[in-house]
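[Discussion] Sanity-checking designs against the backbone

I'm trying to build intuition for which residues belong where. Below is a structure token string of 402 positions. I'd appreciate it if someone posts a full sequence so I can compare it with mine line by line.
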């Protein structure tokens, strides 16, 4: 029996959509094809676990809208399904006069996005929230929380399965053959016909679009984010979440301290160009994937503009001393011996042909395909609204009906 709807990618976005599609299209046969032997093995399973509030994003953007709604829905979903979570709030800390001025803009942006309870705190007040923090003043964001997105994804998958979705792991998609009535999806576990395909392949979603014969008009450049763990004896330096003021020129949020839902505290992630899409270690290298990025005109434009920053991120990656010293801006008491190397994750950073970093979420509907091309942070937080948005787009295609 052919499937009506095939979803490529068993991360949080693919599974959120699978779960919601099974409800929206109850008589539809749905399959999820995941290349790894289990779910959530890439971005979803290697992130900071933060339920972002939506304070950072440009008013009116998909990110702003879906993050604010997503945070509320994520908290409700975790509560309903007994997934551990906490709405612990966070401090965004200015350490220079320039950053301090940007905090006012950040508060205005957060309020424009519909957040309430944002408070600018002077040095004394911020040290009542986080007694060991350095810096000049801070923005307190009460709606930020923490959870475990692998557990959230497992729950999405369980609910999808209960509603009849088939999940096939170890099934990497390698090619498509498309005719007027269906798409034949070639995978390492056999071929699957489907009437409509939703590409949620994360770090490889541009490649999947190309395999389908569509121009994604961007390339996904992998940026590794490395973490250090605070040793348990020093975890008391951080109560909740401590972030720097983001640099408007870069989409990444800067090295921050995060108390994880399972109790440990880590610092990170940095943002280092990875020489492999799934390159979790400094020495990981794939010649083809590296050359693909280097040959891309937009990458060379970006490299010319941001090479200094890129170099300094690389130095911080190889030098623990540099990493710790950037952490000391937020937490002056932290010392080299307090931190041990932790995990890492790789972000899919979309880059346009002209070298601009693609900021907002991006979807590309083409014939029997919908490509989810750019869903970086805060897409784990926003995964429920993103899944709902994809349901709408599939409905609009008129190829899948209730
Ligand atoms: C270091 C880091 C920190 C982050 N912190 C946060 C945070 O605190 N809060 C937040 O909201 N967001 C955060 N994010 C962002 C968030 O994790 C991602 O936006 C989200 O996980 C994207 O989910 P996804 O399903 O699109 O991608 P993924 O989780 O990467 O899933 C894509 C899936 O597609 C599969 N796949 C790829 N190619 C194929 C193929 N050919 N055939 C079949 N399957 C394939 C992969 O194996 C993978 O399982 C962070 C990301 C990183 C990397």
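Best answer:
Here's mine. Compare freely.
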């Amino acid at each position: 029996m052919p499937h009506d709807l095939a979803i490529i990618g068993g991360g949080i976005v693919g599974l959120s959509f699978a779960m919601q599609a099974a409800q929206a299209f109850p008589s539809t046969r749905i399959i999820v094809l995941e290349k790894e032997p289990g779910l959530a093995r890439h971005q979803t399973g290697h992130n900071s676990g933060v339920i972002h509030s939506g304070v950072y994003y440009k008013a009116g953007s998909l990110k702003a809208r879906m993050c604010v709604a997503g945070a509320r829905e994520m908290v409700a979903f975790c509560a309903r399904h007994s997934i551990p979570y906490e709405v612990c709030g966070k401090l965004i800390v200015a350490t220079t006069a320039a950053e301090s001025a940007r905090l006012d803009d950040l508060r205005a942006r957060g309020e424009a996005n519909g957040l309430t309870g944002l408070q600018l705190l002077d040095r004394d007040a911020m040290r009542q929230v986080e007694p060991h923090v350095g810096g000049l003043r801070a923005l307190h964001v009460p709606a930020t929380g923490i959870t475990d997105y692998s557990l959230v994804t497992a729950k999405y998958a369980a609910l999808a399965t209960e509603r009849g979705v088939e999940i096939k792991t170890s099934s990497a998609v390698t090619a498509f053959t498309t005719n007027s009535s269906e798409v034949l999806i070639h995978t390492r576990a056999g071929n699957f016909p489907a009437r409509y395909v939703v590409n949620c392949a994360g770090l490889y979603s541009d490649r999947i679009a190309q395999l389908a014969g569509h121009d994604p008009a961007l390339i996904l450049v992998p940026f590794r984010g490395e973490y250090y763990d605070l040793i348990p004896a020093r975890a008391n330096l951080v109560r909740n979440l401590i972030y720097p003021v983001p640099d408007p020129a870069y989409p990444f949020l800067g090295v921050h301290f995060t108390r994880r839902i399972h109790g440990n505290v880590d610092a990170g992630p940095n943002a280092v160009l990875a020489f492999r899409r799934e390159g979790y270690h400094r020495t990981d290298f794939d010649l083809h994937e590296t050359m693909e990025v280097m040959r891309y005109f937009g990458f060379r434009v970006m490299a010319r503009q941001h090479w200094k920053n890129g170099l300094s991120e690389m130095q911080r990656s190889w030098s623990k001393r540099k990493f710790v010293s950037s952490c000391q801006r937020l937490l002056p008491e932290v010392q080299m011996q307090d931190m041990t190397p932790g995990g890492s994750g790789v972000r899919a950073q979309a880059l346009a042909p002209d070298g601009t970093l693609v900021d907002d979420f991006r979807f590309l509907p083409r014939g029997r395909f919908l490509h989810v091309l750019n869903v970086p942070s805060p897409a784990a937080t926003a995964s429920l609204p993103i899944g709902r948005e994809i349901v709408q787009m599939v409905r609009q295609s008129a190829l899948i009906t209730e």
